[in-house]
Amino acid sequence: MATSPGKTETPLAGRRAQAARNDEVILEAARGVFLDDPKAPIAAVAERAGVGISALYRRYAGKEDLLRQLCHDGLRRYIAEAETALAVSDDWAAFAGFLARVVDADVHSLTVHLAGTFAPTEEMGRDAMRANELATALFERARASGRLRPDVVVQDLGLLLEACAAVRVPDSERTGQLRRRQLAVLLAGLSAAPDTDPLPGPPPAAGEFDWRWRRRE
Amino acid sequence: MATSPGKTETPLAGRRAQAARNDEVILEAARGVFLDDPKAPIAAVAERAGVGISALYRRYAGKEDLLRQLCHDGLRRYIAEAETALAVSDDWAAFAGFLARVVDADVHSLTVHLAGTFAPTEEMGRDAMRANELATALFERARASGRLRPDVVVQDLGLLLEACAAVRVPDSERTGQLRRRQLAVLLAGLSAAPDTDPLPGPPPAAGEFDWRWRRRE
DNA sequence: GCAGACCGGAACGATCCGTTCCACTGTTAG
DNA sequence: CTAACAGTGGAACGGATCGTTCCGGTCTGC
Protein backbone atom coordinates (compact mmCIF):
# COMPACT_ATOMS: atom_id res chain seq x y z
CA MET A 1 0.00 0.00 0.00
CA ALA A 2 0.92 3.66 -0.25
CA THR A 3 3.11 3.04 -3.24
CA SER A 4 2.17 5.82 -5.60
CA PRO A 5 0.29 8.68 -4.06
CA GLY A 6 1.93 11.59 -5.88
CA LYS A 7 3.26 13.14 -2.72
CA THR A 8 4.47 10.54 -0.22
CA GLU A 9 7.97 10.89 -1.60
CA THR A 10 9.06 12.81 1.50
CA PRO A 11 9.68 10.20 4.17
CA LEU A 12 8.39 12.10 7.18
CA ALA A 13 4.88 13.37 6.78
CA GLY A 14 1.30 12.29 6.90
CA ARG A 15 -0.63 9.59 8.54
CA ARG A 16 0.42 7.03 5.99
CA ALA A 17 4.09 7.68 6.67
CA GLN A 18 3.55 7.47 10.42
CA ALA A 19 1.89 4.12 9.93
CA ALA A 20 4.69 2.90 7.72
CA ARG A 21 7.22 3.95 10.31
CA ASN A 22 5.22 2.14 12.97
CA ASP A 23 5.60 -1.05 10.98
CA GLU A 24 9.29 -0.93 11.64
CA VAL A 25 9.08 0.45 15.17
CA ILE A 26 6.76 -2.36 16.19
CA LEU A 27 8.89 -5.07 14.68
CA GLU A 28 11.97 -3.71 16.38
CA ALA A 29 10.21 -3.46 19.71
CA ALA A 30 8.91 -6.99 19.34
CA ARG A 31 12.40 -8.22 18.57
CA GLY A 32 13.76 -6.52 21.67
CA VAL A 33 11.02 -7.75 23.94
CA PHE A 34 10.77 -11.36 22.81
CA LEU A 35 14.52 -11.72 22.61
CA ASP A 36 14.60 -10.85 26.25
CA ASP A 37 11.67 -13.05 27.21
CA PRO A 38 10.03 -15.39 24.70
CA LYS A 39 6.79 -15.39 26.64
CA ALA A 40 6.48 -11.71 27.29
CA PRO A 41 2.94 -10.34 27.03
CA ILE A 42 2.02 -8.64 23.83
CA ALA A 43 1.24 -5.45 25.73
CA ALA A 44 4.93 -5.16 26.56
CA VAL A 45 5.68 -4.90 22.87
CA ALA A 46 3.16 -2.12 22.41
CA GLU A 47 4.55 -0.25 25.39
CA ARG A 48 8.12 -0.56 24.22
CA ALA A 49 7.13 0.59 20.76
CA GLY A 50 5.27 3.52 22.27
CA VAL A 51 2.05 2.63 20.50
CA GLY A 52 -1.31 1.27 21.52
CA ILE A 53 -2.35 -2.34 21.30
CA SER A 54 -4.55 -1.65 18.29
CA ALA A 55 -1.54 -0.67 16.26
CA LEU A 56 -0.30 -4.21 16.77
CA TYR A 57 -3.53 -5.99 15.98
CA ARG A 58 -3.93 -3.92 12.87
CA ARG A 59 -0.79 -5.54 11.51
CA TYR A 60 -0.86 -9.05 12.91
CA ALA A 61 -3.74 -11.44 13.30
CA GLY A 62 -2.56 -12.32 16.78
CA LYS A 63 0.44 -12.99 18.93
CA GLU A 64 1.25 -16.19 17.12
CA ASP A 65 1.42 -14.33 13.84
CA LEU A 66 3.91 -11.85 15.21
CA LEU A 67 6.07 -14.56 16.72
CA ARG A 68 6.09 -16.47 13.46
CA GLN A 69 7.12 -13.40 11.54
CA LEU A 70 9.92 -12.66 13.98
CA CYS A 71 11.21 -16.19 13.86
CA HIS A 72 11.07 -16.35 10.11
CA ASP A 73 13.00 -13.09 9.90
CA GLY A 74 15.66 -14.61 12.13
CA LEU A 75 15.85 -17.65 9.92
CA ARG A 76 16.29 -15.48 6.86
CA ARG A 77 18.98 -13.52 8.61
CA TYR A 78 20.77 -16.77 9.40
CA ILE A 79 20.60 -17.81 5.77
CA ALA A 80 21.80 -14.42 4.60
CA GLU A 81 24.79 -14.50 6.93
CA ALA A 82 25.64 -18.00 5.79
CA GLU A 83 25.52 -16.99 2.16
CA THR A 84 27.68 -13.99 2.86
CA ALA A 85 30.15 -16.20 4.65
CA LEU A 86 30.26 -18.74 1.84
CA ALA A 87 31.55 -15.99 -0.41
CA VAL A 88 34.62 -15.55 1.77
CA SER A 89 37.59 -17.40 0.39
CA ASP A 90 39.39 -18.29 3.62
CA ASP A 91 37.60 -21.36 4.91
CA TRP A 92 38.23 -20.80 8.57
CA ALA A 93 37.59 -17.06 8.48
CA ALA A 94 34.29 -17.70 6.71
CA PHE A 95 33.27 -20.16 9.40
CA ALA A 96 34.34 -18.07 12.38
CA GLY A 97 32.96 -14.86 10.92
CA PHE A 98 29.62 -16.50 10.28
CA LEU A 99 29.34 -17.66 13.86
CA ALA A 100 30.38 -14.28 15.21
CA ARG A 101 27.72 -12.49 13.19
CA VAL A 102 25.04 -14.99 14.10
CA VAL A 103 25.93 -14.62 17.76
CA ASP A 104 26.00 -10.83 17.54
CA ALA A 105 22.58 -10.68 15.94
CA ASP A 106 21.24 -13.13 18.53
CA VAL A 107 19.69 -15.12 15.75
CA HIS A 108 19.59 -18.18 17.95
CA SER A 109 17.18 -16.59 20.45
CA LEU A 110 15.10 -15.38 17.56
CA THR A 111 14.73 -18.79 16.01
CA VAL A 112 15.23 -21.69 18.34
CA HIS A 113 13.94 -20.03 21.49
CA LEU A 114 10.81 -18.82 19.72
CA ALA A 115 10.15 -22.08 17.96
CA GLY A 116 7.36 -24.13 19.44
CA THR A 117 5.28 -21.09 20.32
CA PHE A 118 3.53 -21.01 16.97
CA ALA A 119 2.52 -23.27 14.11
CA PRO A 120 5.32 -23.11 11.55
CA THR A 121 4.60 -22.57 7.89
CA GLU A 122 5.82 -24.85 5.16
CA GLU A 123 8.07 -22.12 3.88
CA MET A 124 9.77 -21.98 7.23
CA GLY A 125 10.37 -25.68 7.01
CA ARG A 126 12.05 -25.25 3.66
CA ASP A 127 14.09 -22.33 4.93
CA ALA A 128 15.17 -24.31 7.95
CA MET A 129 16.42 -27.08 5.67
CA ARG A 130 18.28 -24.63 3.52
CA ALA A 131 19.80 -23.04 6.62
CA ASN A 132 21.04 -26.45 7.65
CA GLU A 133 22.57 -27.12 4.28
CA LEU A 134 24.40 -23.82 4.24
CA ALA A 135 25.71 -24.30 7.76
CA THR A 136 26.87 -27.77 6.85
CA ALA A 137 28.69 -26.43 3.83
CA LEU A 138 30.45 -23.85 5.98
CA PHE A 139 31.30 -26.48 8.52
CA GLU A 140 32.72 -28.86 5.94
CA ARG A 141 34.92 -26.12 4.58
CA ALA A 142 36.10 -25.34 8.11
CA ARG A 143 36.89 -28.98 8.59
CA ALA A 144 38.73 -29.09 5.30
CA SER A 145 40.91 -26.25 6.52
CA GLY A 146 42.26 -28.64 9.10
CA ARG A 147 41.70 -26.33 12.00
CA LEU A 148 38.86 -28.35 13.49
CA ARG A 149 39.49 -31.32 15.72
CA PRO A 150 38.34 -34.47 13.96
CA ASP A 151 35.68 -35.57 16.42
CA VAL A 152 33.37 -32.59 16.16
CA VAL A 153 30.25 -32.71 14.02
CA VAL A 154 27.98 -30.08 12.48
CA GLN A 155 25.46 -30.57 15.23
CA ASP A 156 27.99 -29.29 17.71
CA LEU A 157 27.19 -25.88 16.31
CA GLY A 158 23.81 -26.16 17.98
CA LEU A 159 25.46 -26.59 21.35
CA LEU A 160 27.82 -23.75 20.61
CA LEU A 161 25.09 -21.30 19.69
CA GLU A 162 23.02 -22.32 22.65
CA ALA A 163 25.98 -21.70 24.92
CA CYS A 164 26.48 -18.22 23.55
CA ALA A 165 22.80 -17.34 23.72
CA ALA A 166 22.75 -18.46 27.34
CA VAL A 167 25.10 -15.64 28.30
CA ARG A 168 22.94 -12.83 29.58
CA VAL A 169 23.51 -9.76 31.72
CA PRO A 170 21.23 -6.75 32.13
CA ASP A 171 23.29 -4.55 29.86
CA SER A 172 22.88 -5.71 26.29
CA GLU A 173 26.14 -4.31 24.98
CA ARG A 174 28.03 -6.09 27.71
CA THR A 175 26.10 -9.23 26.89
CA GLY A 176 27.47 -9.00 23.39
CA GLN A 177 31.04 -8.75 24.65
CA LEU A 178 30.69 -11.71 26.94
CA ARG A 179 29.12 -13.77 24.19
CA ARG A 180 32.07 -13.02 21.96
CA ARG A 181 34.32 -14.23 24.71
CA GLN A 182 32.31 -17.40 25.13
CA LEU A 183 32.45 -17.94 21.40
CA ALA A 184 36.21 -17.53 21.40
CA VAL A 185 36.60 -20.12 24.14
CA LEU A 186 34.35 -22.56 22.34
CA LEU A 187 36.08 -22.10 19.01
CA ALA A 188 39.40 -22.68 20.72
CA GLY A 189 37.93 -25.82 22.21
CA LEU A 190 36.78 -27.04 18.81
CA SER A 191 40.15 -26.33 17.25
CA ALA A 192 42.56 -29.10 16.54
CA ALA A 193 45.08 -29.57 19.30
CA PRO A 194 47.73 -32.25 19.13
CA ASP A 195 47.37 -33.90 22.52
CA THR A 196 43.78 -33.58 23.70
CA ASP A 197 41.51 -36.43 24.69
CA PRO A 198 38.67 -37.18 22.32
CA LEU A 199 35.30 -35.65 23.17
CA PRO A 200 33.20 -37.93 25.38
CA GLY A 201 29.89 -39.58 24.63
CA PRO A 202 28.04 -40.04 21.37
CA PRO A 203 28.17 -36.78 19.40
CA PRO A 204 24.91 -34.89 18.90
CA ALA A 205 22.95 -36.48 16.09
CA ALA A 206 20.93 -34.97 13.28
CA GLY A 207 17.39 -34.26 14.39
CA GLU A 208 18.25 -34.46 18.05
CA PHE A 209 17.23 -30.85 18.52
CA ASP A 210 14.12 -30.98 16.36
CA TRP A 211 11.87 -31.29 19.41
CA ARG A 212 12.25 -27.58 19.88
CA TRP A 213 10.13 -26.99 16.81
CA ARG A 214 7.27 -29.04 18.09
CA ARG A 215 4.51 -27.22 19.90
CA ARG A 216 5.31 -26.51 23.50
CA GLU A 217 3.30 -25.52 26.57
CA MET B 1 0.59 -50.97 54.96
CA ALA B 2 -0.36 -52.17 58.42
CA THR B 3 2.52 -54.55 58.82
CA SER B 4 2.28 -55.09 62.53
CA PRO B 5 4.62 -52.48 63.92
CA GLY B 6 6.04 -54.00 67.03
CA LYS B 7 8.21 -50.93 66.95
CA THR B 8 8.90 -48.26 64.42
CA GLU B 9 12.29 -49.83 63.91
CA THR B 10 11.27 -51.26 60.57
CA PRO B 11 11.62 -48.44 58.07
CA LEU B 12 8.48 -49.14 56.10
CA ALA B 13 5.38 -48.97 58.24
CA GLY B 14 3.01 -46.58 59.90
CA ARG B 15 1.75 -43.15 59.21
CA ARG B 16 4.84 -41.55 60.66
CA ALA B 17 7.10 -43.50 58.35
CA GLN B 18 4.96 -42.71 55.35
CA ALA B 19 5.23 -39.04 56.22
CA ALA B 20 8.97 -39.25 56.65
CA ARG B 21 9.28 -40.92 53.29
CA ASN B 22 7.13 -38.22 51.73
CA ASP B 23 9.61 -35.63 52.95
CA GLU B 24 12.15 -37.08 50.60
CA VAL B 25 9.76 -37.91 47.77
CA ILE B 26 8.50 -34.35 47.72
CA LEU B 27 11.94 -32.81 47.73
CA GLU B 28 13.03 -35.07 44.92
CA ALA B 29 9.94 -34.29 42.88
CA ALA B 30 10.43 -30.59 43.47
CA ARG B 31 14.02 -30.85 42.33
CA GLY B 32 12.97 -32.61 39.15
CA VAL B 33 10.17 -30.21 38.37
CA PHE B 34 11.89 -26.92 39.11
CA LEU B 35 15.09 -28.03 37.44
CA ASP B 36 13.06 -28.48 34.32
CA ASP B 37 11.13 -25.25 34.68
CA PRO B 38 11.91 -22.74 37.41
CA LYS B 39 8.43 -21.32 37.28
CA ALA B 40 6.47 -24.51 37.24
CA PRO B 41 3.28 -24.47 39.30
CA ILE B 42 3.45 -26.02 42.71
CA ALA B 43 0.71 -28.45 41.76
CA ALA B 44 3.13 -30.02 39.28
CA VAL B 45 5.39 -30.94 42.17
CA ALA B 46 2.56 -32.57 44.05
CA GLU B 47 1.51 -34.52 40.99
CA ARG B 48 5.03 -35.71 40.26
CA ALA B 49 5.47 -36.73 43.86
CA GLY B 50 2.17 -38.59 43.75
CA VAL B 51 0.81 -36.72 46.75
CA GLY B 52 -1.82 -34.10 47.39
CA ILE B 53 -1.16 -30.41 47.69
CA SER B 54 -1.69 -30.50 51.43
CA ALA B 55 1.30 -32.75 51.85
CA LEU B 56 3.37 -29.91 50.43
CA TYR B 57 1.88 -27.13 52.49
CA ARG B 58 2.28 -29.17 55.63
CA ARG B 59 6.04 -29.02 55.12
CA TYR B 60 6.62 -25.64 53.56
CA ALA B 61 5.04 -22.30 54.34
CA GLY B 62 4.62 -21.62 50.65
CA LYS B 63 6.21 -21.90 47.28
CA GLU B 64 8.92 -19.45 48.14
CA ASP B 65 9.93 -21.54 51.09
CA LEU B 66 10.31 -24.63 48.97
CA LEU B 67 12.31 -22.81 46.34
CA ARG B 68 14.61 -21.38 48.98
CA GLN B 69 15.20 -24.79 50.47
CA LEU B 70 15.96 -26.30 47.08
CA CYS B 71 18.37 -23.53 46.21
CA HIS B 72 20.13 -23.73 49.53
CA ASP B 73 20.52 -27.46 49.11
CA GLY B 74 22.11 -26.85 45.74
CA LEU B 75 24.48 -24.35 47.26
CA ARG B 76 25.48 -26.84 49.95
CA ARG B 77 26.04 -29.47 47.32
CA TYR B 78 28.29 -27.09 45.44
CA ILE B 79 30.29 -26.44 48.58
CA ALA B 80 30.52 -30.13 49.37
CA GLU B 81 31.80 -30.94 45.89
CA ALA B 82 34.34 -28.17 46.11
CA GLU B 83 35.62 -29.42 49.44
CA THR B 84 35.87 -32.93 48.09
CA ALA B 85 37.80 -31.64 45.11
CA LEU B 86 40.19 -29.64 47.25
CA ALA B 87 41.25 -32.87 48.87
CA VAL B 88 42.47 -34.22 45.53
CA SER B 89 46.17 -33.78 45.12
CA ASP B 90 46.38 -33.31 41.35
CA ASP B 91 45.49 -29.67 40.77
CA TRP B 92 44.00 -30.06 37.32
CA ALA B 93 42.14 -33.25 38.11
CA ALA B 94 40.63 -31.60 41.17
CA PHE B 95 39.44 -28.69 39.07
CA ALA B 96 38.08 -30.70 36.17
CA GLY B 97 36.51 -33.29 38.45
CA PHE B 98 34.76 -30.59 40.44
CA LEU B 99 33.26 -29.05 37.34
CA ALA B 100 32.16 -32.42 36.01
CA ARG B 101 30.34 -33.26 39.23
CA VAL B 102 28.73 -29.86 39.46
CA VAL B 103 27.53 -30.16 35.90
CA ASP B 104 26.28 -33.70 36.44
CA ALA B 105 24.28 -32.69 39.48
CA ASP B 106 22.89 -29.69 37.63
CA VAL B 107 23.75 -27.54 40.60
CA HIS B 108 23.76 -24.47 38.42
CA SER B 109 20.07 -24.76 37.56
CA LEU B 110 19.35 -25.39 41.21
CA THR B 111 21.11 -22.27 42.38
CA VAL B 112 21.47 -19.55 39.80
CA HIS B 113 18.30 -20.28 37.86
CA LEU B 114 16.22 -20.40 41.03
CA ALA B 115 17.77 -17.30 42.54
CA GLY B 116 15.62 -14.22 42.40
CA THR B 117 12.41 -16.14 42.93
CA PHE B 118 12.61 -15.91 46.70
CA ALA B 119 14.04 -13.73 49.44
CA PRO B 120 17.42 -15.19 50.34
CA THR B 121 18.41 -15.77 53.95
CA GLU B 122 21.55 -14.42 55.49
CA GLU B 123 22.92 -17.91 55.82
CA MET B 124 22.60 -18.35 52.09
CA GLY B 125 24.57 -15.19 51.62
CA ARG B 126 27.35 -16.57 53.78
CA ASP B 127 27.25 -19.91 51.99
CA ALA B 128 27.41 -18.16 48.64
CA MET B 129 30.53 -16.33 49.73
CA ARG B 130 32.11 -19.52 50.96
CA ALA B 131 31.23 -21.23 47.69
CA ASN B 132 33.00 -18.46 45.85
CA GLU B 133 36.09 -18.76 47.97
CA LEU B 134 36.30 -22.48 47.47
CA ALA B 135 35.82 -22.19 43.73
CA THR B 136 38.48 -19.53 43.60
CA ALA B 137 40.88 -21.74 45.49
CA LEU B 138 40.26 -24.57 43.04
CA PHE B 139 40.69 -22.21 40.14
CA GLU B 140 43.96 -20.82 41.46
CA ARG B 141 45.32 -24.31 41.86
CA ALA B 142 44.28 -25.12 38.32
CA ARG B 143 46.03 -22.01 37.13
CA ALA B 144 49.12 -22.95 39.09
CA SER B 145 49.16 -26.25 37.26
CA GLY B 146 49.90 -24.30 34.12
CA ARG B 147 47.19 -25.94 32.10
CA LEU B 148 44.98 -22.84 31.98
CA ARG B 149 45.53 -20.12 29.43
CA PRO B 150 46.67 -16.96 31.18
CA ASP B 151 43.79 -14.69 30.23
CA VAL B 152 40.95 -16.59 31.87
CA VAL B 153 39.57 -15.52 35.23
CA VAL B 154 37.53 -17.25 37.93
CA GLN B 155 34.40 -15.57 36.71
CA ASP B 156 34.71 -17.45 33.45
CA LEU B 157 33.46 -20.43 35.41
CA GLY B 158 30.10 -18.73 35.56
CA LEU B 159 29.95 -18.60 31.79
CA LEU B 160 31.10 -22.19 31.58
CA LEU B 161 28.45 -23.51 33.96
CA GLU B 162 25.77 -21.49 32.26
CA ALA B 163 26.80 -22.94 28.92
CA CYS B 164 26.54 -26.49 30.22
CA ALA B 165 23.22 -25.88 31.94
CA ALA B 166 21.86 -24.47 28.70
CA VAL B 167 22.19 -27.86 27.02
CA ARG B 168 18.81 -29.49 27.24
CA VAL B 169 17.07 -32.33 25.42
CA PRO B 170 13.93 -34.17 26.45
CA ASP B 171 15.83 -37.22 27.66
CA SER B 172 17.65 -36.36 30.85
CA GLU B 173 20.33 -39.01 30.57
CA ARG B 174 21.19 -37.81 27.10
CA THR B 175 21.25 -34.27 28.40
CA GLY B 176 23.93 -35.36 30.83
CA GLN B 177 26.04 -36.82 28.03
CA LEU B 178 25.79 -33.71 25.90
CA ARG B 179 26.65 -31.51 28.84
CA ARG B 180 29.77 -33.54 29.43
CA ARG B 181 30.68 -32.99 25.82
CA GLN B 182 30.08 -29.27 26.11
CA LEU B 183 32.19 -29.20 29.24
CA ALA B 184 35.01 -31.01 27.47
CA VAL B 185 34.97 -28.48 24.63
CA LEU B 186 34.98 -25.56 27.04
CA LEU B 187 37.77 -27.00 29.14
CA ALA B 188 39.80 -27.54 26.01
CA GLY B 189 39.09 -23.94 25.10
CA LEU B 190 40.28 -22.73 28.47
CA SER B 191 43.42 -24.81 28.28
CA ALA B 192 46.72 -23.23 27.45
CA ALA B 193 47.57 -23.48 23.78
CA PRO B 194 50.75 -22.03 22.35
CA ASP B 195 49.45 -20.03 19.42
CA THR B 196 45.93 -18.85 20.18
CA ASP B 197 44.72 -15.27 20.12
CA PRO B 198 43.90 -13.75 23.49
CA LEU B 199 40.26 -13.78 24.52
CA PRO B 200 38.38 -10.67 23.37
CA GLY B 201 36.78 -7.98 25.49
CA PRO B 202 37.05 -7.20 29.16
CA PRO B 203 36.86 -10.46 31.14
CA PRO B 204 33.80 -11.01 33.34
CA ALA B 205 34.23 -9.08 36.58
CA ALA B 206 33.42 -9.99 40.15
CA GLY B 207 29.82 -9.19 40.96
CA GLU B 208 28.81 -8.97 37.34
CA PHE B 209 26.42 -11.86 37.80
CA ASP B 210 25.03 -10.78 41.14
CA TRP B 211 21.92 -9.32 39.56
CA ARG B 212 20.58 -12.84 39.34
CA TRP B 213 20.16 -12.91 43.08
CA ARG B 214 18.04 -9.80 43.12
CA ARG B 215 14.31 -10.25 43.05
CA ARG B 216 12.94 -10.81 39.62
CA GLU B 217 9.52 -10.71 37.96
C1' DG C 1 -15.82 18.60 4.76
C1' DC C 2 -16.34 13.91 5.18
C1' DA C 3 -15.40 8.88 4.79
C1' DG C 4 -12.54 6.12 6.63
C1' DA C 5 -7.77 4.63 7.88
C1' DC C 6 -5.48 4.61 12.07
C1' DC C 7 -4.92 4.68 16.82
C1' DG C 8 -5.10 4.56 22.26
C1' DG C 9 -6.52 2.05 25.79
C1' DA C 10 -10.45 0.39 28.64
C1' DA C 11 -13.09 -3.79 29.08
C1' DC C 12 -13.86 -8.69 28.78
C1' DG C 13 -13.35 -13.45 29.23
C1' DA C 14 -10.40 -17.24 29.69
C1' DT C 15 -6.69 -19.30 32.09
C1' DC C 16 -3.56 -20.23 35.45
C1' DC C 17 -1.78 -20.56 40.15
C1' DG C 18 -0.89 -20.02 45.04
C1' DT C 19 -3.20 -20.83 49.03
C1' DT C 20 -6.94 -22.19 52.06
C1' DC C 21 -10.31 -25.28 53.68
C1' DC C 22 -12.69 -29.35 54.81
C1' DA C 23 -13.91 -34.03 55.00
C1' DC C 24 -11.71 -38.38 55.64
C1' DT C 25 -8.47 -42.03 57.30
C1' DG C 26 -5.42 -44.69 59.67
C1' DT C 27 -2.44 -44.29 63.95
C1' DT C 28 -1.46 -44.03 68.45
C1' DA C 29 -1.59 -42.51 73.36
C1' DG C 30 -4.03 -43.54 77.27
C1' DC D 1 -11.02 -49.85 72.71
C1' DT D 2 -11.58 -45.37 71.50
C1' DA D 3 -11.01 -40.53 71.29
C1' DA D 4 -8.09 -37.28 69.65
C1' DC D 5 -5.27 -36.06 65.94
C1' DA D 6 -1.43 -35.86 62.65
C1' DG D 7 -1.45 -36.49 57.95
C1' DT D 8 -3.67 -36.28 53.62
C1' DG D 9 -6.29 -35.60 48.95
C1' DG D 10 -8.27 -32.48 46.31
C1' DA D 11 -12.08 -29.17 45.52
C1' DA D 12 -12.81 -24.30 45.93
C1' DC D 13 -11.48 -19.46 46.05
C1' DG D 14 -9.53 -15.12 44.94
C1' DG D 15 -6.19 -12.71 42.65
C1' DA D 16 -3.34 -11.97 38.80
C1' DT D 17 -2.16 -12.17 33.95
C1' DC D 18 -2.89 -12.00 29.18
C1' DG D 19 -4.83 -12.32 24.49
C1' DT D 20 -8.26 -10.22 22.07
C1' DT D 21 -12.14 -7.22 21.13
C1' DC D 22 -14.40 -2.95 20.97
C1' DC D 23 -15.40 1.81 20.95
C1' DG D 24 -14.67 6.61 20.86
C1' DG D 25 -11.61 9.90 19.06
C1' DT D 26 -8.21 12.07 15.59
C1' DC D 27 -6.20 13.27 11.54
C1' DT D 28 -5.68 12.73 6.32
C1' DG D 29 -6.34 12.34 1.76
C1' DC D 30 -9.61 13.22 -1.57
Describe this protein's structure.
The structure is a homodimer of 217-residue chains. The first copy, chain A, is an all-alpha fold and 217 residues long. Chain A contains nine helices and no strands. The A-B interface holds A 152, 156, 159-160, 162-167, 169-170, 174, 177-178, 180-182, 184-191, 193, 196-197, 199-204, 208-209, 211 and B 152, 156, 159-160, 162-163, 165-167, 169-170, 174, 177-178, 180-182, 184-191, 193, 196-197, 199-204, 208-209, 211. The structure holds a DNA duplex (30 and 30 nucleotides).
Write down the overall geometry of chain A: elongated
Q: What class would the helix/strand composition of chain A place it in?
A: mainly alpha
Oligomer: homodimer
- Helical fraction of chain A: 55-70%
Give helix and strand order of chain A, one letter per element, not per position. Answer: HHHHHHHHH
The biggest sheet of chain A, with number of strands, parallel, antiparallel or mixed sense and barrel status, is: none
Which strand-content bin applies to the residues of chain A?
A: under 5%
Spatial extent as radius of gyration of chain A: 20 Å
Mean pLDDT of chain A: 92
Distance between the termini of chain A: 37 Å
Q: Number of DSSP helices of chain A?
A: 9
The CATH level-2 architecture of the largest domain in chain A is identified as Orthogonal Bundle
Report the CATH C-level class of the largest domain in chain A: Mainly Alpha
Biggest interchain interface, per-side counts? A-B, 38 and 37 residues
CATH superfamily of the largest domain in chain A, please?
Tetracycline Repressor, domain 2
Q: How many strands in all of chain A?
A: 0
- Low-confidence stretches of chain A are 1-11
CATH topology of the largest domain in chain A: Tetracycline Repressor, domain 2
The overall number of domains of chain A is 2
